[in-house]
Amino acid sequence: MNQQEIGHTRTPVGPRRATAASALALAVLLAGCTSSGAGTSESKTNPEVPVKEGGSLVIGAEQEPDCADWISVCSGSIWGDYMMRTTTIPKVFDVRPKDNTWVPVASSLMAGEPTITEGDQQKITYKISPDAVWSDGEPITSADFKYTALQIRDGKDVLDKTGYDKIAKVDTTDEKTAVVTLKEPYGGWRTLFSSAYGVLPEHLLKGKNRNAVMKDGYSFSGGPWKIESWKKGTAITLVPNDRYWGKKPKLDKVTFQLTTDTAAAFQAFKSGQLDAMYPTPQLDVVEQLGQVAGGAKRQIDARTGNLEALWMNNEKFPFDSPAVRRAVAHAVDRKAIVNKLYGSLGVKEPAQSFLTPILSSYAGSDFSRYTRDLAAVDEAMTGDGWKKGSDGIWAKDGRRAEFGIVSLAGNKRRELTEQILQTQLKQAGFRMTIRNTSPADLFGKQAPAGNYEMGLWTLVDTFPDPALSNSFSSTSIPTEANGQSGINFVRAKIDGLDPLLAAVDRETDPAKRAESSRQADKLIADAVPAIPIGTVPNILLWSDRVGGPLSNNPSEGPWWNLAEWGLAK
User: Fold this and answer.
1) Which pLDDT tens digit goes with each residue over 521-535?
2) pLDDT per residue over 401-453, tens digit each?
3) Helices assigned H by DSSP within 463-536
4) If you write DSSP's letter for every residue of 220-278 in order, what string do you get?
5) Closest CA to 67 of 224, 227, 191
């Protein structure tokens, strides 16, 4: 998944890098908009500014990915998706606006919509566009589909195998037709070769160490852009792929300048060093936006695919106790945190599900029972055999209710959240220590290995399909047995949950999928393996030098249509 952190069909940003129509991602212009407490808004649309051919732009990037091998666990950062995967890797479905929603539509890779043959073994037929070629001129073929499918299904060190583990075979008899046979029906079939991975070139990667070829950037492309360079710690530069068969980029070059400090990024934007930025919402973001020059434009989306949450390692003390997890859920004042962090950006209520706003039709509201309630904390803890010591901290069998929390070092919003949590939890009898680290360490090492107690990060849905199994199915716990694949980083094992999550994945009837999803939501709330905090708004900011049809895509990020950006006429 991507964790902005994680993005996949669910990705941490965190993970989740998910297929059904999503809720409308409402674009809210900071100037001239009104917002309700739930984060929905009345909005103005951004008029498309005509652009000229040529020129270059410099865009601020707040997070550097650990690697560009999109199959590997090291690719968990959503920023890697935004900057490189979306712009260079071909995929079957794009997420695009249609009738006031964001929905999957067949991409230019396809000659038409893939077709489904229902049955005990579902078949999906992909007709590949005759014009589709890699940047070296070689055609994109069914062999590329087969290579990608087997690398994910059978490989080790795979970020997420959901869906691909159902593939029985891939027929490549016709080089421009891939026929995928699944072991059983799969309701989320549109995520295959789309949301998290796309399609990779068999002729360039087969027989080689894929990770070694791709991890530091790669020269091939099947998208509108190519990676010209990746200077670690400094910048990622894209140039047009001259062999792309779809809409060609207007610009000659785009440089993503790695600027991890939000305040420094705003200063660079104000001084003209950055032409656009996608800042993480911070406490002073509205003040910073207000100081930007009058010609700058901005867009805030309050309904997104981003969910900030507290992730408790269910295998680590003290969170191996469901009673302790429930107590912590009652110790935290989520509404106060959300209002402090995002109230000025239109988000005033905490999230009550682990399904993000773009998947609200599949979500319940069962976490609404968890409000700040110290009496409920005492009841849960004493019922589990805990007693408070003279210092007010709970203890049991000689062990105290002490634990560490890990998030991204240097992120002011996260640091403030941790400080608020630290105070709230201490008042409830828990001692929490802050142990922040880098994105590469958190999402590439600590979280996958389970070497943490509590974490604070954002989960990103990168496709409008319900994908709770990615985060909470016991089969998604990274282990030696599954090649360290999956993003159930909390190591949740909840009685009765796996069959419900399997039903959500398998069911092709939208109404039945939604019912199973809501039942799963309830079981997750009952067990409290983690605690949803709130939706994280998207903010896109650009100068008057930038033109084109600019808008946030709640699944694919701000640069989903970068080929159409340009210098304003």
Assistant:
1) 999 999 999 999 999
2) 999 999 988 788 899 999 999 999 999 999 999 999 988 889 888 999 999 99
3) 468-472, 497-506, 510-527
4) --SSSEEEEEEETTTEEEEEE-TT-SSPPPSSSEEEEEE---HHHHHHHHHTTS-SEE-
5) 227
